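One record is set out below.
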Amino acid sequence: MDRIAADARALQHCLRHAPIDCAQVLTDRVTEAQALAASALHLFLDLEREPSHDSSAHLLRLDRAARTAKAAQDASAELTAALARAVENQRRRADAPTSPPVVLRPTPQQFVASAADLLDGLLAQCHALRRDHPQPPAVPVPPSR
């Protein structure tokens, strides 16, 4: 869970602060978002396999894990849309050398901003999961006497 949150923060930082000036960079961000979604789905499966004494709390954790995966998938879809739009607009510019091209909106950067915003939701779900499902201690605690 911590790894998912760290990866999401890193991706979000790149989307908000690093220039996305070519298709290769955008493709790399799509790949990172897809890897994030895969990690979130694995987290869901791990949580789903855990034995539960409180089905309500267990279902809440599963819901949050599923929403985490969905946010990552949605961010990936937005980035893929940005890639497609960037290529389409580039093609339109190449096809209209003598007159101003008609570029399509939303712009690739608007799709990228949307993906970064979706990662806010993913981070909120990770925070809620961490709060509700703390990691077990690394060292077993001896029984009280």
Residues 8 and 38 are 12 Å apart (CA to CA). The chain has one domain: 2-132.
